[in-house]
Design goal:
By secondary structure, this protein is of the alpha+beta class. Helices cover 19% and strands 42% of the residues. Strands 1, 2, 3, 4, 5, 14 and 15 form a seven-stranded antiparallel β-sheet that branches. Strands 6, 9, 10, 11, 12 and 13 form a six-stranded antiparallel β-sheet that branches.
């Protein structure tokens, strides 16, 4: 499947910022299940080309803007060819040791309810228990837009019984680590199925390590493992750690942020069309 993506993030400052620092993870990596095509990242129309692999194997770039600026528009766009690898995510350039992904954070710290949820996930082996865990998370936490915010923890979302994809992924990651499985938060894009609401923002899901298989992508929000409809951008210990865009600014007091994602399947070129193009 070939997907076309346009992702824009606009920062507007109430008074011109004196200096802005941006950490961008907006360049899809080459993996066994995805191959970026013509892809570009720009800030106010200026290309960003300084992407290099980080310790997690994801591509990132740090950009500094000095001088007064009232508006920054970050645009990532292009095409990515994907294939269904039955949930297995492989082909990373480099990675940190697996024990790092057993470390809980403030957003994923498990309470008694999350530990009980992990123990309730039954199965003959780890992969079966992780599938059961994904189903349990989806059953216990209804998807409700606006029910939580970026600071909500996994424990809070589970207690509330409502959340969004970030919360589903945080709960899964937290509980998977309780089971002894290294797990991490993943940010990227999802092409919604026909009939579903279009995705106008990045999507969040989880990856867990299963010995003998490697990293497996679990999307508890949709109750499945990742397919060719997913484009992976980056990962981290939690959503904050895996944010595609992070920024620091000096010289202003209020910031307005607008973000939008458009994604669609590229129609294959038929032989007759190809001849016409030639």
């Amino acid at each position: 499947m070939e997907l076309a993506i346009h992702h824009s993030t606009i920062y507007c400052y109430d008074s011109p910022a004196k200096q802005v620092g941006l950490l961008l993870r907006l360049q899809p990596s080459q993996l066994d299940s995805q191959t970026p095509g013509d892809w570009s990242v720009t800030i106010n129309g200026k290309p960003v080309t300084s992407f290099t692999p980080n310790a997690f194997g994801d591509l990132e770039a740090f950009v500094q803007h000095r001088g007064a600026v009232a508006r920054l528009e970050i645009v990532a766009e292009g095409t990515v060819s994907t294939r269904d690898a039955h949930g297995i995510v492989a082909g990373f350039r480099n990675e940190l040791p697996l024990p790092v992904f057993l470390r809980q954070t403030e957003l994923t710290c498990p309470d008694g309810a999350i530990k009980a949820l992990a123990l309730a996930a039954q199965g003959e082996d780890l992969i079966s228990r992780l599938h059961a865990l994904s189903d349990l998370v989806r059953d216990r936490v209804a998807y409700v837009t606006g029910a939580t915010d970026h600071a909500s923890t996994a424990a809070e979302a589970l207690a509330q019984g409502e959340g969004v994809c970030q919360d589903h992924a945080h709960i899964f990651v937290s509980a998977a680590r309780v089971l002894g499985a290294p797990a991490r938060y993943v940010a990227g894009y999802l092409l919604a199925d026909e009939g579903d609401l279009a995705q106008h923002e990045t999507h969040g899901w989880a990856e867990a390590w299963v010995e003998g298989l490697g990293w497996i992508g679990f999307d508890a929000t949709n109750g499945l493992c990742v397919t060719e409809r997913y484009v992976r951008l980056c990962c981290g210990l939690d959503a904050h750690d895996a944010a595609p865009v992070r920024g620091a600014v000096t010289g202003t007091t209020a910031i307005a942020i607008q973000a939008d994602v458009m994604i669609g399947e590229v129609a294959p070129v038929r032989p007759q069309q190809e001849q016409q193009q030639q």
